[in-house]
Every structure is written in structure tokens, then in C-alpha cells.
């Protein structure tokens, strides 16, 4: 009797042990991502991944960009690579990766399998995600900015958009296309304050004017001629030919305006191309042309560079599974899968050379211009004059989010007509000097 | 109202009251309406009122993208849980303050209310560290704790003001009859206090349901309520008004319906001692 | 009425609430005060050092500080004004006899249930947008230039949005209070020939004064930390036109992850909130001490 009991107990214990062992076989990855179209599509294809990778389950947390950044940064920074983290895979941009990589908060992805073909990544994008030879995040999609314009309106105006326009031409075209009575505004640009909103556009624009955020000694440069010219021209464009309420327009608001046919031109993220040419959402889908972001003949164009990428926080306990997922989501096979399911126009753009060599993809109207725009941006050498920082439309230092937003508020006030351009620049210079002094970059 | 009212006057009042009521309600009506439009129609000018192709597509898209019911259930557990626990702590406290007031009662009450003025953004990092070390991050327990503490002062205060309106003589009469403290609370106070407790409960469920700072910042996947659900619909993905409207409708509807059905109870106790 | 035993019992009954709230207040507060004296940026680990009052000095010398203070007061004051005046008017109206009273009351109550983020998004995009919004369409259909709400009057617009959310609350409390008014008193006044305005001023308004203080107290608590509405609509701009204290602390502590500075800002905000609280308590104390 006793032995049977013992045997039963032993069996139960064994069962329990094997039970837990079995449970450990399934790993659940928590993935934090931003609610952009391409990521939502990826989430929709979870089943494809879990089917080919039994034992890994996916749990998605999809959030609006600002909320996501705040959540993920808090999580990763408080962990510091030592404590447990909430997320096993995080969506980070080219701004975060250099800073976090340097802190050791992200797991190096140098050991991804050979099929991943890391050499296929576009060099501009890869550089932005590499710190001291270590790739810290795998690009999911890359974007630059370019001019999107209405082919019908520019024809009516008797003009022809060059592939590489100058700011002067943009002004001329904006003037010719504006018809305020008919609610067509020559140009739509970002105006809502924020480092990722108006400052992304304005920093990139200023680069083409020969301006920069800091000189080589981290001295803020808003008191220079170049910034003054850039800001004055921006205000001139927007006040004369821009839509009303521009100072609270971000990417989204402008997209809505363009899709309704209310903008002649719009200079913004290259990913918008697939939205404005999508007939289901856009009234002007068949009348959109693309051109490189404008320049001033100084050797730099006013386009930025960004890559939403997938990384693994150092505190994660599920690094191996997370790597498997990342290698899948940013692979060539994933691209082929999307092409098959949704068409070539909808594949995540801007990360791999092979995509742009694919004859099928070359038929997509904005493919070539996107590639050229990305190649025209150089985050390690973003400005006409040398700078101590990397990043085209941002400065890859931790203080930038705050400084960028404060300066953005000043420029947005200038656009709203509350203060003059001179005043805005003077305030920007003061604010930035103050913050940089506090952070110890300058005395 | 015993005053005689002419039909003419009643008609005029009706028109004015309905106009104002509809104006105030219009944004919600418009959101619900937009949720049945296509994205292109959602931004059409002139705005389309009823003549458009009604579609349920937005709801399908929203449900496909995020598991509404899980978020909904989290919201229910968190808001009800924090309110019920809050009530359990608050009822004795408010009872004592109302019926055995001391010299400091008022000060204590005001001090409690002042804890509600702590700006959440300033204490996020300390609290986050605390939650991480106690393993409360992304748990419903953690959120219930925070929301209980946040809303406790309001609960106590509402109950206190309500209890104070219960005439003390009734209690004394009960005591004369030899009622014990327990039976005093159970048989005399409770029936009189139910409307107050009910409306406190409702108000706090509403407040907890809509709390969007802590619920967003202390959760990830498992405990995220509807506020997190909404946070994934408000940005760059092409036109989004219709999808946002659908998600908003789904997030507001449960609490709106609850509020409407229990409106009488809510209002009856929502006096904060102001009616006297 | 209070015996010694019942006093002890009362203490016992209050203590859980008091202890919990004390902990809730002291633990984060102590941590915040401690952090506020450090140089501590979450994004630069290993650099923590004692800073003394440097963070405070820096916070107070922020050029946005004064305007944030003013904006906070304007926002609280503005919303209180709109919701109290509007609330009294609506309560007067709903107190009348008319058809469909119950339904109108439901309609008026509804905005109170809407999450702040949702209401900000809806107002910004579907109503106030100068190109696509319904207001713009209304302006244009009567031949006017659309008013550009968030640029030309950003703070007013935000006050409007927040007021819409709080008006129902005020209306309801005031309506309940009004319904408790002794109608005989009003009738007597009417018989005496007192005109409506006088009746309102001398009978109704004094009767409502307690309810009004309650509305002010509760709303102030919530209005001091308005945040989502600002983040969604204007991001604190243009300039610092819509930056309130909460938003300022947000820019410093959650955008820069400068925990030291953010904590200093948090401490300042708590102190200011308590000053407001003391004022309110005086007011309430006078008014509620029946």
C-alpha cells in the first residue's frame, strides 16, 4: 500500500516536472511596436510566424508613437540591462539606437544567421543602427523625406517639377498652385511643435541651408545667418501658400489634407507615398508625382533619414527566441510574403538593396525616388559644416528630445504669428544654450 | 413643482432644453456616426450626415488588430476592483468621521483631498522603480492598488458628506433600544446609506475607467485596459478618423451605457453634502 | 454623543484609510524629494551625484515657468468659470417642466463619460480643424473665413474642450441642489411680486452656494493636472501658450528623462497645488460648515 502510494506520488511529481518542462518549451515574446501601417500588417501575420516557429508565441503591444517611446524608454532605462524588462522586442528608431547601444541596453545582433544577409542592408540605414561595429537593431522599414506633388496642378500652373528641385523652385511652384478660394494650398508642411514633428522637418531643411544645431564645440548655432534664412523662408512659404491652422499640423493632419486634394505639394516622409497613392483613401491617388527634397546648391538636401527597427533590451530573458523573431520580421522572406499577400507597393520599404534590384518592385511609382532620397541622406555627416553629432533631423544625444520640443514650440509660435522669426531664433538660442550648459556640454 | 405652467411656456422650454442637450451631445453622436463611415467619407466636406454608405468595416478592423474583450475585461476588473476595495476602506473611515467627529476631522479630510493633487508626471519614475522591484508592473493588482489610492480621498469625502446627512437622532434611538455598533451599522445605517454608496461606487468606476496616465504607464500587455487600446489608434497610419471613432465608440460605450442606466442612482448621491 | 469607547472605535475605523494615504503620500513624495536633490538622468546611468538645490534653481529660472504658472491658473479658472456659470444656467433650464426631461438630462450628462484623449482627438480633428472641421464648414457656409482655433486662441480652445468634459458634472450637482430648494419659498417670493432675476439672485443663488463650492473643489483637483488634452492638441505650443505646469514637468522628466529636474518640478507643483488647496479649504470650511 505504502509503495503504491509512493509510486503514485512519484508519478505525479514526474508529471508535474515534465509539465513545467513542457510549459517552458513555449516562450511568449512581448513585442512593443508603433501603430504604423507596416507594423500593423506584421502583427496581422503573427500566425505565419508561429506556424513556422512552434514553441514561440507572440504578444503584441501596439501604441501611438509618443506613448510607445515613453513606455519603452522608461522600461529599458530603469532596467539598465540589469533588471527584468516588460518587453522582449522593442521598436526603436535611429535616434534611440546609437544612445542605447552605447549604454549597453540593447543586445548585439551581429550573430544573426547567415540567411539574414546583413550586407544586403542599405549602408545609410545600417550605419545609423551600428555602434562600434555592433548592429544593435534590425531595420524594419526605412524612410527619408521627399517632395510629393500634384502632377495635374503643376501642369495647370505651366511648370515642370525637376527630379531635384531647389527651394527657389518650390516657392515658385507653391505660389503658382495656390488657389485659396478653391481651398488648394500650394504647400503643406509640418508646424505642430515637437522634436519629431516640426523640428524633424525644419532641422532637415536647415541642413540644406547650411545651418546646423551645434558647431564642433557644441555651441548652439541659432544665432547664425543660415538658420535665419531657413526659418524666414519656411515662414514665408507657409504664411503665403500654406493651409490655415498649420501650426498644429503634424504628419497626420497634412496627410489628410493631401489625400483630399488640398495641397499642391507636401514635403514629408517617403512612407506617405503608399498612402497618397492608395485609391481607397486618397482622392488624388492617380495625380501624385515625387521628387527629391529641395536644396540650395550647397551640397546637402533637406531630407531626413529614419528607420524603425527591432531591437532586444539587454534585460530580456528570451534573447534567442527574440532573435528568431527579428530575423524573420526583417528578412527577405518576409518582404516576399507581404508582396504575395498585399502587393509590392505595400512591402516595408527602404532597408535592403535587393528590394530595389527587384524588377517587380521597380514598377512601384515611388520606389526609385525613395531609394534615391535615402541614399542622399548621411546621418554621420549631415550638414554642410562639420558637426560633433550624428543624425540628420535630430541630434543623437539624450537631451535632444527635450531641447527639440522646446525649440519646436518657439518655431511653432513664429508660424502662428505670435513672435517674429528673429525672436524665435533668439529664444531658441537661449533655451538651447541653457540646456546644453546644464548637461555639461558647454560652460 | 406645483406652479402652473402654460403650455406655451412649456413648449418654449422644451425647444431650448433639447437644443442645448443636443448641442452638448453632438460630438459624441458625431463620433459614433463617423465610426460607420469609410475613411474618405469621414473627412468629406461638406460633412455627410446620414446619407453615406454605412459600414461596419472599421469595427472589424479594430477587433482584428487588438483584442477588445481582453482590454475591456481589464478595464472592468481594474475599475470595479479599485472602487470596491476603496469602499471597504472608506466606509468605516467616513462613518467614523461623520458620526464621531473630532476636532481634527475636517483637517484630516482636507489633507486626504490634498493628496490627490500630487501631479502624476512628477512621481512616475519613483513609482515605476517601486513597482518594478515589487513585481507589480503590468499586473491588474498593481493598477488596482494605484487607482484605489488615487480615488480613496474622493470616495471618503463623498461618503462622509452623505453620511452626515443621516440624522443623528435615528442612531440615538437605535442605541436606546440597545443596538450594538454592528447592528447599528447593519440595520440602521446601511439602508439609509445605500444610495450614497451606490452613487460613490458609480462615480469612482467612471473615474477609474477613464484614468489614462497610470494605466498606460504601468502596463504592457497583460493588464492593459481600454485606455491603452485607444492609445494605439491616434496616429500616423493614413486617414484614421473612422477607425479612431470606432475604437472610441467601443471604449466609451460600456461606461456610457452604465452611466445612463444608473443615472438616477448616480445623481441621487452626487450631492457632496451640498444639498441641505 | 461620542463616548470614549466609540471614539476609540472611530479611530480604529479611520486608521486604515489614513495609514494607506499617508504611505501613498510619503513614499513617492520622499523619493521625489530625494531625487530632486540629485543630478540624475535615467538615460545616463552611473552619473548620479548630489546636486543640492541646483535642480530647483534651474526649474525656477526656466523662461517657461512663469507662463506655465499663469496658464495653469487661467486653465483652472477658465474651466471653472465656464462650467459653473454654464452649469447654473443648464440646471435652471433642466429644473423647468418640459417634455423629454429624462432624455435631455442623459444627453447633457454624456460628455462626462468620455476619456480625455478621445475628446481631445475628436475636438481637434473633427471640429476645430480649420480645413476639415465642422466649425470651419459652418463658418464657410455663412461666408466667413474659418476661425483657426488652436493657432489663434490655443488656450481658449483647450479651455473649451476641457469645459465640455466638466460641464455635465457641474450641471448635475447644481441641478440636484436646485431640486432640493423649497418650492414654497420661491412661490411665496413670486406672490410677493419679486421679479425672476431677484428671485434668482436672493433665493436660488444663495441656496446653490454650497453646491458651487463643491463643484469648484472637485474640479480644481482634476484641472490642476490636465495633460492629455494638451499633448494631443498643441503639444504645449505654439510657443508656450498652452504649457501648464504638468506639461512642463512632462517635458523635463519624461522627454529628457531628467529625473532630478522632473522631481524638482514635481515638488514645486505639489507645493503650489497645496497652496491652492489651502485657499479652497478656507472657502469650503466657511461654506460647508453647516
UniProtKB/TrEMBL annotation, chain A:
Belongs to the bacterial solute-binding protein 1 family. Residues 1-23 form the signal peptide. Keywords: Signal. It holds the Pfam family SBP_bac_1. Gene3D superfamilies: Periplasmic binding protein-like II. It is found in: Periplasm. This is Sugar ABC transporter substrate-binding protein. The keyword Signal applies. Coiled coil: none annotated. The keyword Signal applies.
UniProtKB/TrEMBL annotation, chain B:
Keywords: Cell membrane, Membrane, Transmembrane, Transmembrane helix, Transport. The chain crosses the membrane at residues 12-33, 72-96, 108-131, 143-163, 184-207, 240-261. PROSITE patterns: ABC_TM1. PANTHER family: INNER MEMBRANE ABC TRANSPORTER PERMEASE PROTEIN YCJP, MALTOSE TRANSPORT SYSTEM PERMEASE-RELATED. Its main location: membrane. Residues 72-262 form the ABC transmembrane type-1 domain. Pfam families: BPD_transp_1 (PF00528). It is found in: Cell membrane. It is a multi-pass membrane protein. This is Carbohydrate ABC transporter permease. Belongs to the binding-protein-dependent transport system permease family.
From TrEMBL, chain C:
It comes from the Bacteria. Its main location: membrane. It is a multi-pass membrane protein. InterPro entries: MetI-like (IPR000515), MetI-like_sf (IPR035906). Residues 69-280 form the ABC transmembrane type-1 domain. The keyword Membrane applies. The chain crosses the membrane at residues 12-37, 68-94, 106-123, 149-175, 208-228, 259-281. It is found in: Cell membrane. Keywords: Cell membrane, Membrane, Transmembrane, Transmembrane helix, Transport. The keyword Zinc does not apply. PROSITE patterns: ABC_TM1. Belongs to the binding-protein-dependent transport system permease family. This is Sugar ABC transporter permease. It comes from Paracoccus onchidii.
Amino acid at each position: 500500500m505504502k509503495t503504491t502510494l509512493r509510486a503514485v506520488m512519484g508519478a505525479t511529481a514526474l508529471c508535474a516536472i515534465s509539465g513545467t518542462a513542457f510549459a517552458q518549451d513555449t516562450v511568449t515574446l512581448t513585442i512593443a511596436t508603433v501603430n504604423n501601417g507596416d507594423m500593423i500588417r506584421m502583427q496581422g501575420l503573427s500566425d505565419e510566424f508561429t506556424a513556422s516557429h512552434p514553441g514561440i508565441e507572440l504578444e503584441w503591444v501596439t501604441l501611438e508613437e509618443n506613448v510607445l517611446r515613453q513606455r519603452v524608454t522608461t522600461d529599458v532605462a530603469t532596467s539598465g540591462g540589469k533588471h527584468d524588462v516588460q518587453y522582449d522586442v522593442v521598436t526603436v528608431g535611429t535616434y534611440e539606437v546609437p544612445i542605447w547601444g552605447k549604454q549597453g541596453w540593447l543586445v548585439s545582433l551581429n550573430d544573426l544567421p547567415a540567411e539574414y544577409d546583413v550586407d544586403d542592408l542599405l549602408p545609410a540605414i545600417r550605419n545609423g543602427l551600428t555602434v562600434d561595429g555592433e548592429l544593435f537593431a534590425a531595420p524594419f522599414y526605412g524612410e527619408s523625406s521627399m517632395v510629393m506633388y500634384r502632377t495635374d496642378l503643376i501642369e495647370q500652373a505651366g511648370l515642370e517639377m525637376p527630379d531635384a528641385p531647389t527651394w527657389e523652385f518650390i516657392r515658385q511652384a507653391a505660389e503658382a498652385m495656390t488657389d485659396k478660394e478653391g481651398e488648394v494650398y500650394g504647400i503643406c508642411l509640418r508646424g505642430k511643435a515637437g522634436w519629431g514633428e516640426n523640428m524633424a522637418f525644419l532641422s532637415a531643411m536647415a541642413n540644406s541651408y547650411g545651418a546646423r544645431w551645434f558647431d564642433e564645440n557644441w555651441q548652439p548655432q541659432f544665432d547664425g545667418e543660415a538658420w535665419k534664412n531657413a526659418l524666414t523662408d519656411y515662414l514665408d512659404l507657409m504664411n503665403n501658400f500654406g493651409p490655415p491652422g498649420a501650426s498644429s499640423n503634424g504628419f497626420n493632419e497634412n496627410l489628410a489634407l493631401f489625400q483630399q486634394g488640398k495641397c499642391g505639394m507636401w514635403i514629408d516622409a517617403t512612407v506617405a507615398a503608399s498612402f497618397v497613392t492608395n485609391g481607397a483613401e486618397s482622392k488624388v491617388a492617380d495625380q501624385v508625382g515625387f521628387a527629391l527634397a529641395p536644396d540650395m546648391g550647397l551640397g546637402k538636401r533637406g531630407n531626413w533619414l529614419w528607420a524603425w527597427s527591432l531591437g532586444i533590451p539587454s534585460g530580456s530573458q528570451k534573447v534567442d527566441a527574440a532573435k528568431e523573431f527579428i530575423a524573420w520580421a526583417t528578412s527577405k522572406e518576409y518582404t516576399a510574403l507581404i508582396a504575395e499577400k498585399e502587393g509590392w507597393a505595400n512591402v516595408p520599404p527602404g532597408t535592403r538593396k535587393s528590394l530595389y534590384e527587384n524588377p517587380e518592385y521597380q514598377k512601384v511609382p515611388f520606389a526609385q525616388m525613395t531609394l534615391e532620397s535615402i541614399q542622399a541622406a548621411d546621418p554621420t555627416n549631415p550638414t554642410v559644416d562639420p558637426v560633433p553629432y550624428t543624425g540628420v533631423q535630430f541630434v543623437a544625444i539624450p537631451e535632444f528630445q527635450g531641447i527639440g520640443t522646446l525649440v519646436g514650440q518657439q518655431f511653432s509660435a513664429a508660424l502662428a504669428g505670435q513672435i517674429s522669426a528673429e525672436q524665435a531664433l533668439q529664444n531658441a538660442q537661449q533655451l538651447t544654450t541653457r540646456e546644453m550648459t546644464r548637461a555639461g556640454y558647454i560652460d | 413643482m406645483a406652479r402652473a405652467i402654460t403650455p406655451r411656456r412649456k413648449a418654449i422650454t422644451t425647444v431650448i432644453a433639447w437644443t442645448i442637450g443636443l448641442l452638448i451631445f453632438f460630438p459624441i453622436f458625431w463620433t459614433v456616426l463617423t465610426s460607420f463611415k469609410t475613411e474618405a467619407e469621414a473627412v468629406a466636406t461638406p460633412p455627410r450626415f446620414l446619407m453615406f454608405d454605412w459600414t461596419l468595416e472599421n469595427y472589424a478592423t479594430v477587433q482584428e488588430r487588438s483584442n477588445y474583450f481582453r482590454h475591456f475585461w481589464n478595464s472592468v476588473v481594474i475599475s470595479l476592483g479599485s472602487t470596491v476595495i476603496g469602499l471597504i476602506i472608506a466606509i468605516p473611515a467616513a462613518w467614523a468621521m461623520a458620526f464621531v467627529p473630532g476636532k481634527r476631522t475636517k483637517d484630516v479630510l482636507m489633507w486626504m483631498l490634498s493628496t490627490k493633487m500630487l501631479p502624476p508626471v512628477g512621481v512616475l519614475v519613483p513609482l515605476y522603480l517601486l513597482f518594478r522591484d515589487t513585481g507589480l508592473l503590468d499586473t491588474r493588482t498593481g493598477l488596482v492598488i494605484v487607482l484605489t489610492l488615487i480615488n480613496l480621498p474622493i470616495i471618503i469625502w463623498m461618503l462622509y458628506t452623505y453620511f452626515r446627512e443621516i440624522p443623528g437622532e435615528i442612531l440615538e434611538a437605535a442605541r436606546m433600544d440597545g443596538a450594538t455598533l454592528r447592528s447599528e451599522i447593519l440595520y440602521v445605517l446601511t439602508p439609509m446609506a445605500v444610495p450614497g454608496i451606490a452613487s460613490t461606487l458609480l462615480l469612482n468606476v467612471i473615474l477609474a475607467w477613464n484614468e489614462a496616465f497610470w494605466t498606460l504607464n504601468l502596463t504592457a500587455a497583460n493588464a492593459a485596459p481600454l485606455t491603452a487600446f485607444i492609445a494605439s489608434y491616434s496616429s500616423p497610419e493614413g486617414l484614421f478618423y473612422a477607425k479612431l471613432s470606432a475604437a472610441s465608440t467601443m471604449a466609451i460605450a460600456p461606461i456610457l451605457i452604465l452611466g445612463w442606466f444608473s443615472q438616477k442612482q448616480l445623481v441621487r448621491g452626487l450631492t457632496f453634502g451640498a444639498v441641505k | 454623543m461620542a463616548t470614549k469607547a466609540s471614539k476609540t472605535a472611530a479611530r480604529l475605523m479611520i486608521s486604515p484609510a489614513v495609514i494607506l494615504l499617508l504611505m501613498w503620500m510619503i513614499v513617492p513624495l520622499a523619493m521625489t524629494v530625494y531625487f530632486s536633490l540629485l543630478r540624475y538622468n535615467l538615460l545616463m546611468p552611473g552619473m548620479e551625484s548630489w546636486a543640492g538645490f541646483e535642480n530647483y534653481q534651474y526649474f525656477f529660472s526656466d523662461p517657461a515657468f512663469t507662463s506655465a504658472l499663469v496658464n495653469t491658473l487661467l486653465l483652472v479658472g477658465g474651466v471653472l468659470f465656464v462650467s459653473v456659470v454654464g452649469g447654473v444656467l443648464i440646471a435652471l433650464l433642466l429644473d423647468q417642466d418640459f417634455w423629454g426631461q429624462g432624455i435631455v438630462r442623459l444627453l447633457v450628462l454624456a460628455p462626462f463619460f468620455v476619456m480625455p484623449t478621445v475628446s481631445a482627438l475628436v475636438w481637434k480633428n473633427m471640429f476645430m480643424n480649420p480645413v476639415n472641421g465642422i466649425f470651419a464648414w459652418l463658418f464657410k457656409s455663412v461666408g466667413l473665413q474659418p476661425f483657426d482655433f488652436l493657432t489663434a486662441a490655443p488656450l481658449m480652445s483647450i479651455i473649451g474642450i476641457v469645459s465640455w468634459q466638466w460641464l455635465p458634472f457641474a450641471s448635475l450637482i447644481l441641478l440636484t441642489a436646485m431640486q432640493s430648494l423649497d418650492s414654497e419659498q420661491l412661490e411665496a417670493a413670486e406672490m410677493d411680486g419679486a421679479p425672476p432675476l431677484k428671485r434668482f439672485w436672493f433665493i436660488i443663488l444663495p441656496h446653490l452656494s454650497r453646491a458651487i463650492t463643491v463643484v469648484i473643489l472637485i474640479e480644481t483637483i482634476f484641472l490642476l493636472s490636465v495633460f492629455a488634452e494638451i499633448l494631443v492638441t498643441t503639444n504645449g505650443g505654439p510657443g508656450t501658450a498652452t504649457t501648464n505646469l504638468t506639461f512642463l514637468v512632462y517635458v523635463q522628466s519624461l522627454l529628457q528623462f531628467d529625473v532630478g529636474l522632473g522631481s524638482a518640478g514635481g515638488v514645486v507643483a505639489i507645493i503650489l497645488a497645496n497652496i491652492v488647496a489651502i485657499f479652497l479649504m478656507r472657502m469650503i470650511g466657511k461654506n460647508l460648515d453647516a
